[in-house]
Amino acid sequence: MKPTVLILCTGNSCRSHMAEGILRAAAGDVLDVQSAGSKPAGYVHPLAIRALLEIGIDISGHRSKHLDEFLSSDVETVVTVCGNADQVCPMFPGQVNRHHWGFDDPAHAEGDEEEQMVVFRRVRDEIKRVFEAYAAGRKDSAAQAATV
Q1: Exposure winner among 2, 103, 116, 123, fewest CB in 10 A?
Q2: CATH topology for 4-147?
Q3: Which residue numbers are catalytic?
Q4: Domain limits, the chain
C-alpha cells in the first residue's frame, strides 16, 4: 500500500489543491496524495485550476474536503501549506511525519483576472519547486528500499 500524504490548508480551494496536483504528478505511483482543509471553501478556485492547466496538470475534478474525512485514515505524512492549518492540525492515525511549508494565499490576490493570475503563477511555481524536490526525495527513498 502506498503511503498517504495529506496536504492541508484552511480553505482547501487553492494552495493545497495546487500542491496535491503537483505532488501527485511528480511522485507518480510512489505516494497516495490527498488534500483537505480545516474550513473548506466548498470549491476549487478556478484560477488555481487554470494555473495548473498551464503546466499540464488537471485538477478540475478535485473537490474541497474537510480534514475530518481523513481522521480515520492511515495518513503517513501531513504537510500544512498555511499557518492557520498548521495551528489547528490534529494528529492522524499512523502519522509519522509532519511538515509545514507556508505559501502566500493567491485567493487574496487583487486586481483583474490577469493581475490575479500573476500571483497564482508565482505561488504555483513556489509550490512546484518545494513539492517536486520532496517527491524526488521520496522516490529516491522508495527506490533504495526496493533494492534492499
Answers
A1: 2
A2: Rossmann fold (3.40.50)
A3: 9, 82, 89
A4: 4-147
